[in-house]
Amino acid sequence: MRVCSYGANFYDENANRVYTENTKCVGCHFCEAICPTEAITVRKNDFDIRPLAHWTPEHLIGIMKQAETGGVLLTSMGNDRPYFSYFDRIVLNASQVTNPSIDPLREPMEIRTYIGRKEEKLEIEEDEDGTVKLKTEIAPQLKLEVPVMFTAMSYGSISLNAILSLARAARTVGTFFNTGEGGLPKELREFKDNMIVQVASGRFGVSADYLNAGSAVEIKIGQGAKPGIGGHLPGEKVTEPISETRMIPVGTDALSPAPHHDIYSIEDLRQLIYAIKEATRYEKPVGVKIAAVHNVAPIAAGAVRAGADYIVIDGIRGGTGAAPKITRDHVGIPIEFAVAVVDQRLREEGIRHMASIVVAGGIRNSADVIKAIALGADAVYIGTAALISLGCHLCQTCYLGKCNWGIATQDPKLTKRLNPEIGARRAANLLRAWAHEIKEILGGMGINAIESLRGNREVLRGVGLHEYELKLLGIKPAGEAW
Amino acid sequence: MRRILIREEYCMGCKLCEINCVAAQVETGNLIKVYRYVPELPEPNVIVEEHDYVTFALQCRNCDDPSCLKACMTGAMHRDPKTGAIRVNQEKCVGCWMCVMACPFGVIRRNTKEKKVASKCDLCADRGTPGCVEGCPNEALVLVEVRE
């Protein structure tokens, strides 16, 4: 009762007992988790709206809410519609007899990977005394000990303690986290070597100092949960610390426009990429994040030709702190297709080496990571999975800013519930566990390096997929041999 | 010497330390059994202080220069030579509650339920980890070793 920020549990003095107001409960399970005697159970409330196949309770409630308010329905986190999860229809290969499998506990297994532009060829020169030197200048790279990074989540959308948890976990494991578009709180400056800074359409907190504060810069064009639309942080949430990092006055609305108003073409994108490269003295990779939409392959190819060192593709199941429900649920394409067609297109154009591909949007476990990499990714971004490791129970009400778990809130009473020491430990544990599993599966396939898995679609087989889907994914149906 | 470190920035004011302290003082230890079957429950020796979003759990600080020890006329309040913690000898205590008056943190309580003695945190000397530390879901109370 004391802990619920939504006031769902309350004490009635006269009756001397605790009651629950069901309509206020968002199903975040915090009270359940904190109760020491397991006396609370959060259950599905079977209310009496007919579960018709076409007019589902979800649609009815949506219409009722909108009839009352006349507004856009808001929601949070990733798409929860039962669209095909192609990851679930792809199976992996393993070695039997003809090619030996590898035991990752006894033999070396390389899952380190590098994000950034690779050279077409390497030239070496030999000195008179016989020492060999690399003649080619290597473009700046991000070194990932695990091919999983924490995706962009801004200070504002999540609490400082949540970002600190991810930052410390990234440092422990040797990977990267992303500041999101909300600028850089001074507490994060020490994480330079594990930080990617983002430049989005609002350009909040962007300065030459900011661009140089991380290891890479990422230009955000779109987000999987809400392709084509911007963001709006209401003025009430722009508190003193948020205003300081975003560099806007306290209490003003923080509006991220839908497009970057200086980018209306690939040529414009190229200008911004090179402006950032100039500002960072060509020492840092510059990436471009786009949402997976119908035309994703040509757009990604354009971005690579514009000079992007890595491309992030965010699929339809990507999460968000707040988005119109209608956009989140209906705009974009599944990430599996997006990564497959982008990888294919870049290979056909002969520019695959010029940029790494990072995949985001609904990666749930290490098998999804492996499938994404085999479809052509270099690494993946996780957001929802990372937040779940911090306590999130996917109640999908981040936009209310009252997160009981202290993640998607700025209320000091709630943010202190997330101890970044515990958070960092848990997030790092998640990455370590996935790393073990990835090694295990790679070993089973007889592959000893993650780089040999990238784009290796022979290790994938589709189950229950149509011919055209298999063709787009570039994989064979289950049962077909090499 | 072991001490309990209070980390106010992570305390959510859930008061689980208080009920775990009560349970730690009772033999069964199990929360449900304690609250359901133990007739006379002891007072918690940890108190959660609250003001708006500032919350923290406070128990005996085992001061280097303890006022309660000076105020005690019978010598019931003493420093445990082994652990360095301040403890009450229930045999000697006469219940004058001068220690309650003297404590600058207000963490010694009158024990009105049994006899007349004062009740205070003994760092769970007979238990492994103190109940409040074990029961804290957010590591806002941690057990640390400090040098003498």
Task: Characterize the structure shown.
The complex is a heterodimer of chains A (482) and B (148). Chain A has 14 helices and 21 strands. Chain A is an alpha/beta fold. Chain A has two domains: 9-71, no CATH class; 142-477, TIM Barrel (Alpha-Beta Barrel). In chain A, the strands form seven sheets. In chain A, strands 9-19-18-16-15-12-11-10 form an eight-stranded parallel β-sheet. In chain A, strand 11 (195-199), helix 4 (208-211) and strand 12 form a beta-alpha-beta unit. The mean pLDDT of chain A is 92. Chain B folds into two domains: 1-59 and 123-148, 2-Layer Sandwich (Alpha-Beta Plaits), CATH 3.30.70; 64-120, Alpha-Beta Plaits, CATH 3.30.70. Chain B has helices spanning 16-25, 31-37, 67-71, 98-102, 131-135, and strands spanning 2-6, 47-51, 54-58, 77-79, 86-88, 109-110, 118-119, 141-145. Chain B is α+β, with helices and mostly antiparallel strands. In chain B, 22% of the residues lie in helices and 20% in strands. Chain B starts with a strand and ends with a strand. The interface between A and B is medium-sized, with 16 and 20 residues. Chain A: GO terms for molecular function: 4 iron, 4 sulfur cluster binding; glutamate synthase (NADPH) activity; metal ion binding. Chain A: Its EC number is 1.4.1.13. Chain A: Belongs to the glutamate synthase family.
Summarize this entry quickly.
Chain A: Its cofactor is FMN. Chain A: Residues 16-45 form the 4Fe-4S ferredoxin-type domain. The complex is a heterodimer of chains A (482) and B (148). With 482 residues, chain A is α/β, with parallel strands linked by helices.
Write the topology of this structure.
The complex is a heterodimer of chains A (482) and B (148).
Chain A: E1 9-12, E2 17-20, H1 30-34, H2 57-69, E3 74-75, E4 90-92, E5 113-115, E6 124-126, E7 132-134, E8 142-144, E9 148-150, H3 160-173, E10 177-178, E11 195-199, H4 208-211, E12 216-220, E13 231-233, H5 240-246, E14 254-256, H6 266-279, E15 286-291, H7 296-305, E16 310-314, E17 323-324, H8 325-330, H9 335-348, E18 356-360, H10 366-374, E19 379-382, H11 384-390, H12 412-415, H13 420-445, E20 460-462, H14 467-473, E21 476-477
Parallel strand pairs in A: 9-19, 10-11, 11-12, 12-15, 15-16, 16-18, 18-19, 20-21
Antiparallel strand pairs in A: 1-2, 3-17, 4-20, 5-8, 6-7, 13-14
Helix pairs in contact in A: 3-13, 7-9, 10-13, 11-13
Chain B: E1 2-6, H1 16-25, H2 31-37, E2 47-51, E3 54-58, H3 67-71, E4 77-79, E5 86-88, H4 98-102, E6 109-110, E7 118-119, H5 131-135, E8 141-145
